[in-house]
Every structure is written in structure tokens, then in C-alpha cells.
Fold this protein.
Amino acid sequence: MHRENVNNMPETSRETETDEGRRDRQQGHQSSPNIVSLISQIADDNLTLVRNISTGLAVAGVIIIARSIKLITRFQAASEIPARFIERNVSLRGKVHSITDRGIEVEHVPIYLPVLTPLLLKHKGVCTSPMLVHLAGVELTPEGRVWLQKNLAPSQTVWLKLISRDKDVLHCLVSQSRQGSMWSYCMNEEVLRQGLARTAPVVGIQPDSRLYWRLHKQLHRAEVKAEKRGRGLWKQDSLWERASRAVRDSALFRLMRKIFKRT
């Protein structure tokens, strides 16, 4: 009898343990759906809040990125432009302010983002201070400056491809759209093609750099076209004009003028 009771006890214990484990698993299965349901109910009740938080985080991220890359910054002077913009020859949009003996005064117009731009610039005010821009690799003549004044009217939009910076002056390739066309043309090349300027060393770039020689080749090609066509600086007088000038400058002609004046 004693032996049989000993043998029966392990079976009873295992049955008890099995029942307890089954109850624990059932309680676990019941509690898991309850937690999921509770979280879902909270999310449904606060759906607007969750959306607002997500939108706020997204806007904050865009603002941080925009500020870090100065996407919507309005530059007031050449010194404010990051060095990496110059190194990468970034193009900036600008609005012509005036053409002076010092160069082209251009007001920087940053990229406009419908929501972010008013938000970030709301307390900063609107800056109208222009930057001084030179046509890179170009030495303008007085006639060339007059031509720019006629073709770059105030408030006209231009693109400035940054080449170098010298103190408060930006040396750029200045481009504008042709009237009635979607294509733009480079003002640096145009004044050279018209014979209204000469090529000049590109300030702020090493002469042995690839960028220097690419710009020099581009601008020199435009200057050669003006020389071949006899435009502006390269215009040659006709045979009659040269003969007339030679006669006027001759000693005989001056003597005859003196005689006629006395009589």
C-alpha cells in the first residue's frame, strides 16, 4: 500500500501543475488583447493630438534642415555667404538694384517656401540691402556699363553663379532669361561677344585650377567672336574713314586750314 501511494503522488502533482499552467496561459492570452485594446482606444481618443505631434515634428525637422543649409536665408552681404557655397559654385537668385561704377548691385532673393518662409522671417523683417557683384573674368568698358544699364533693368531677376569672393565683392557668372524664352544667357559672355569688354584674370581662383581654365576658355571664345566680327573694341574703320583721317592729320591740310582762316 505504501508503495502504491508513493507511485500515485507524482501523477497528482503533475496534473495540478498542468492545470495551473493552463490557467496562467489563459490569463496571459486574455491580458494581451486587453493591453492592445487599451492602447488602440487611447490612440483613437487622441488621434488629433497624435497627428498634430507628428506634423509638428516633421515641420521642426524641415526647419532645422532649412536653417542648417541656409536654404531660405537672405544674404545681406558677400561676407554672409558660407564658404561652401563659393567652393561648390552655388547659384543664387537675385533682383537687380542698380548698375554703378563699382559693379552690379543685386538684392538676394532666397527660395520661398509657403509655410516656412513667413514663419522664419516673421520677426526678422525684410532686408533690402544689395550685394556688390562683378562679372567674373570681364573688364567692362564705359560702353559696356551703359549696355548693362539698358539690359539689366531694376527689379529684374538674375541668377548669380558664385565663382569667388574678394572682401565685399562677389565675382559671378550673371545670367538672365531671354525675353519670351525659357532659356537664359550669360551676361559675362554677352558683353564680350558685343565687343564691350575684354577678358581679365578671374579673381580669387588659382590660375592652375581646372575651374580657372574652363572659365578662361569659355570667355575667351566669346571675345574671339567679337574680334572676328569687328564689334565694339574690335571695330575697324573703313578704307574711306582711314584715308580721311590721314588727310586731316597731314601737315599740308593743317597749313591750308591756317591760310583760309587768315583770309
Notes: Confidence is low (pLDDT under 50) at residues 1-13, 57-69. Strands lie at 91-99, 104-108, 131-135, 138-140, 157-166, 169-177, 184-186, 197-199.
